[in-house]
Design brief:
This protein has seven helices and seven strands; from the N terminus they run H-E-H-E-H-E-E-H-E-H-H-H-E-E. The protein is α/β, with parallel strands linked by helices and 184 residues long. The protein has one domain: Rossmann fold (3-Layer(aba) Sandwich), CATH 3.40.50.150. It has a seven-stranded mixed beta sheet with strand order 3-2-1-4-5-7-6, sandwiched between helices. Strand 1, helix 2 and strand 2 form a beta-alpha-beta unit. It is globular and about 40 Å long. It starts with 9 loop residues before the first helix and ends with a strand.
């Protein structure tokens, strides 16, 4: 695959991920602030109640600034929280989104994050992360300063957890990511 063959739009990818989840009018948990990119799309295009968490206070402040700059400050609630032990009740959210986050979590903590997603969610857990080929592309062309190939997930540990906690799993792959829609 040459550089000119790469077809990837971060905005379009997030939008497809959200549409695949079927979030309209739902209470949604978005883990990982990342400038509130996902939460801002949810607030702009979908009628959701959104809670966005991150364990880093600085990232929460940056996400709030982007949200306020877009005039969306009243549509997204931000919480300083650790995804390994979320401060929410069981089944508090209809849908939870974990987009390109798990590879940033220490390997020993990834299972706990996934278990917490299923604990706080009553309908659908969405997980998207770099697949092997996508991690190579990401490192080469999109974010060459980090080694995403080494951080990427081995989906072999994730799939049994997903199947154990889901009635049905739908999935797709794109240029970079493998996406799981876990119907509880």
């Amino acid at each position: 695959m040459g550089e000119t063959d790469i077809k990837y739009s971060p905005y379009e990818d997030r939008l497809r991920f959200i549409e695949f989840a079927g979030v309209n009018g739902k209470k949604v948990l978005d883990i990982g602030a990342n400038k509130a990119k996902m939460s801002r799309i949810l607030a702009t295009h979908f009628n959701c109640k959104i809670v966005c968490i991150d364990p880093d206070e600085k990232k929460i402040e940056i996400a709030k600034k982007y949200t306020e700059d877009d005039g969306l400050g009243d549509k997204i609630e931000f919480k300083l929280a650790d995804a390994r032990k979320m401060p929410f009740q069981d089944n508090e959210f209809e849908i939870s989104l974990c987009y390109s986050l798990l590879h940033h979590v220490q390997k020993v903590d990834r299972r706990k994050v996934v278990e917490e997603l299923f604990r706080v969610t009553k309908e659908i857990v969405m997980i998207s992360d770099l697949h092997k080929k996508g991690a190579k592309i990401y490192d080469a062309y999109i974010h060459p300063t980090e080694n995403h190939y080494e951080m990427r997930l081995d989906f072999n540990w994730l799939i049994p957890i997903i199947k154990e906690n889901s009635k049905n799993v739908e999935e797709y792959e794109n240029t970079l990511f493998h996406v799981f829609k876990c119907i509880i």
